[in-house]
Amino acid sequence: AQKVTQAQTEISVVEKEDVTLDCVYETRDTTYYLFWYKQPPSGELVFLIRRNSFDEQNEISGRYSWNFQKSTSSFNFTITASQVVDSAVYFCALSEAGGVYGGSQGNLIFGKGTKLSVKP
Amino acid sequence: DTEVTQTPKHLVMGMTNKKSLKCEQHMGHRAMYWYKQKAKKPPELMFVYSYEKLSINESVPSRFSPECPNSSLLNLHLHALQPEDSALYLCASSQVGGWADTQYFGPGTRLTVL
């Protein structure tokens, strides 16, 4: 069964520290997408990245970087030099080609989220 | 700025009230979604419209009634809700609704049922 595990429920760091948010997924599908979303206290889910299962290249976007490793079924997210504005809940999510609706309809499987608090 | 807008931002209603949540997207997407999110939980899918047709209903109680007047608009009509229905209701949109789509979310409506 498809599943996304974010084992870290809450993380607290001091500004300028680096922090890594872990995401481990389970799927029997060979074709899938992985996503990260940020949810600040205001509530909106902000899309950060989408990565398909055939592209294991790491990605960097400013202070954000993502490490995708199929061998360990992980898609970890690192924030370098964290800032107070990074404080939010971060969700990792999975969408499979052969999902519960037969792939014709998207179905995001979310992890439980990691709450990141960055203290000044 | 988000291109998915939701109104109202906050809503308080009694159990006998009828109210509606509204969502609008300006990205030319053909699929729209309603999610319910309880505190400290991930979003849970309620409904999906694809090309203005209801394609997924995740066994949601009939006191929630979705409506998609056109591909840019999505409503959620609420009637006879229970206090346990209090939650953040998120709308999202995506290109066509397929598994490879990226879903873009609105800011949500915080609903309190008294």
Describe the protein in words.
- The complex is a heterodimer of chains A (120) and B (114).
- By secondary structure, chain A is mainly β.
- Chain A contains no helices and 12 strands.
- Chain A has strands at 3-5, 10-14, 19-21, 24-26, 32-39, 46-52, 59-61, 64-69, 74-79, 88-96, 109-110, 114-119.
- In chain A, strands 2, 5, 6, 10, 11 and 12 form a 6-stranded mixed β-sheet that branches.
- Chain A is globular.
- The termini of chain A are far apart.
- The mean pLDDT of chain A is 92.
- Chain B starts with a strand and ends with a strand.
- By secondary structure, chain B is mainly beta.
- The radius of gyration of chain B is 13 Å and the shape is globular.
- Chain B has no helices and 11 strands.
- Helix content of chain B is 0%, strand content 56%.
- The chains are: A mainly beta (120), B mainly beta (114).
- The interface between A and B is medium-sized, with 27 and 28 residues.
Any descriptors?
heterodimer, A: 120 residues, six-stranded mixed sheet, 0% helix, globular, B: 114 residues, mainly beta, seven-stranded mixed sheet, 11 strands
Q: What separation lies between the terminal Cα atoms of chain B?
A: 32 Å
Largest interface: A-B, 27 and 28 residues
- Global outline of chain B: globular
Compute the number of strand runs of chain B.
Answer: 11
How confident overall, as mean pLDDT of chain B? 94
Whole-number radius of gyration of chain A?
14 Å
Low-pLDDT windows of residues of chain A: none
Question: Helix/strand-derived class of chain B?
Answer: mainly beta
Classify the helix fraction of chain B into a percent range: under 10%
Task: List SSEs of chain B in N-to-C order.
Answer: EEEEEEEEEEE
